[in-house]
Write a structure and sequence with these properties.
With 216 residues, the protein is mainly alpha-helical. It has a domain at 9-156: Alpha Horseshoe (Serine Threonine Protein Phosphatase 5, Tetratricopeptide repeat), CATH 1.25.40.10. Helices cover 62% and strands 3% of the residues. It has 9 helices and 2 strands; from the N terminus they run βαβαααααααα. The chain has helices at residues 13-26, 68-88, 93-105, 109-122, 127-139, 143-156, 161-175, 178-191, 198-213; strands at 9-11, 55-57. It has a two-stranded antiparallel sheet. Helix 2 (68-88) runs antiparallel to helix 3 and helix 5 runs parallel beside helix 7. The protein is elongated and about 55 Å long. Mean pLDDT is 77; it is low at 1-17 and 22-64.
């Protein structure tokens, strides 16, 4: 956790399978984690909402950099049919989000953001998509924009566990705002008493409190 750039990643089984396939095809093994807040939307289906996921990992993107060029090539191939459908259905937010998710998993964050933004112009209240876009901005090194997008997501879904978890992390790691992180995580635990990563949240809160107590 020494890096200023963290990876925020409530993981799902579908994303784990997708990542494993991409890594196998690219000849990459181990060490790279993805956010995976939601699986790529299936063609013609609604975008699944972010839920409290079973795993929320933090890692340094630089710790085991994959062959991003190769992953982009595979992502381009994977979205080809979706892009064809998008030509005849350009205002389909599920298609746009699915394409964004695939590019996100290939670490093509700017491309992912472009598709998320297009989806949000059609459906601005989609808090899960906005939360995904926020994490993409974080990976591009823009903590302020990430927090701004988490703020917007939370106006639509005030108790969203992943948005609170992630905004707290960005506040802590990106803005050195321990008090803000604690406030987010306290709200997360109060609003989501069955959150599966509550022990991890409590550990981080204890670490932040020690840091805050040591400030002059």
């Amino acid at each position: 956790m020494d890096s200023n750039r963290i990876l925020i990643e409530p993981w799902t089984a579908k994303r784990a399978i997708l990542l494993a396939a991409l890594c196998l095809m690219a000849g990459i093994t181990g060490g790279w984690f993805i956010r995976g807040a939601q699986a790529p939307a299936a063609v013609g289906t609604a975008n699944p909402a972010i839920v409290a996921a079973p795993v929320a990992k933090i890692a340094s993107p630089e710790s085991s950099a994959p062959d991003t060029a190769r992953l982009k090539e595979m992502a381009d191939a994977k979205v080809a049919q979706l892009l064809d459908r998008l030509k005849s259905d350009p205002n389909n937010p599920a298609l746009l989000t699915g394409i964004g998710n695939i590019y996100y998993d290939a670490r093509q964050y700017s491309i992912a953001i472009d598709h998320y933004e297009r989806a949000l112009k059609i459906k601005p209240s989609d808090a899960p998509v906005r939360g995904d876009m926020a994490t993409a901005y974080w990976y591009l090194g823009d903590a302020d924009r990430a927090i701004a997008e988490f703020n917007k997501a939370l106006t639509y879904a005030p108790d969203n566990a992943n948005a609170l978890f992630n905004r707290g992390l960005v506040r802590w790691r990106g803005k050195k705002d321990g008090a803000g992180a604690l406030a987010d995580w306290k709200k997360l635990l109060a609003a989501n008493p069955n959150y599966q990563q509550s022990d991890q949240v409590k550990q981080m809160m204890a670490e932040v409190k020690k840091q805050e107590a040591g400030k002059p």
